[in-house]
Amino acid sequence: MPVSPPTQDSGHTTGRPSTHRRRWLAAAAAGAVGLSVRPGFVRAAVDPASVAEPKRTKAGRYLMAADVPAFIQAQGGAGRVLFLDLRTRAEAMYVGMATGIDALVPFVEHQELMTDWDAQRGIYRLEPLQDFVPEANRRLAQKGLAKTDPVILICRSGDRSSRGANRLADDGYTQVWSVVDGFEGDMGTDGRRSVNGWKNAGLPWSYKLERDRMYFQR
């Protein structure tokens, strides 16, 4: 029986699917019809030497956003992988979230009243979320996985996910993968994030959020 691919909110994609979109659909279809994929098999999608210093991790495990769906399928499906979004709650609300994310676990967050300004970055000040590792651990246990199972981290463009990967590695996680181009992608010469990333790859995402996947301070 034919399998309908996940849809996006209207206006996000039009016309013929991109190459990356077709790759995602092929991976999803393979899982739907039960094609055999050797567990643990992963194509070396990113050369660690090519990763910019701010995006590097201790473990050196990297993925491009376009390769995430196939990677998940290669591990045995979504039930075998923890996929976390490390952006702020505001980003999730106003920029949208990737389809397939297990939970939003912010690595940093804005101050409650946003009273301080980060002059160097030109944004309201962000502060480390002390609950990051405990919340990741809670989400891991909720899914019935162990710290030896694959974990994928995605943020806006790969900086926070690299730092989050190091924090989790320090806590005993052994297979943490950072999405180097993130959800929005790197900045182009036009001052827009139009180079790469989940959105630009034509992968499914939505502004519609599910409460049980969101972060709430505990």
Describe the protein.
Helices cover 25% and strands 14% of the residues. It is an alpha/beta fold and 218 residues long. Helix 1 runs parallel beside helix 2. The chain is globular, with a radius of gyration of 17 Å.
H/E series, N to C? HEHEHEEEEEEHEHEHE
Count of helical stretches: 6
Mean pLDDT: 83
Number of strands: 11
Shape: globular
* Global Rg: 17 Å
Main attributes of the structure:
single chain, 218 residues, alpha/beta, five-stranded parallel sheet, two-stranded antiparallel sheet, 6 helices, 11 strands, disordered N terminus
Tell me briefly what this model is.
This protein is about 25% helix and about 15% strand. The protein has 6 helices and 11 strands.
Write the layout of secondary structure elements.
Layout: H1 19-32, E1 62-63, H2 68-74, E2 82-85, H3 89-95, E3 97-98, E4 103-104, E5 108-110, E6 117-118, E7 123-124, E8 126-128, H4 132-142, E9 151-154, H5 159-170, E10 176-179, H6 197-200, E11 205-206
Parallel strand pairs: 1-10, 2-4, 2-9, 9-10
Antiparallel strand pairs: 3-11, 5-8, 6-7
Helix pairs in contact: 1-2
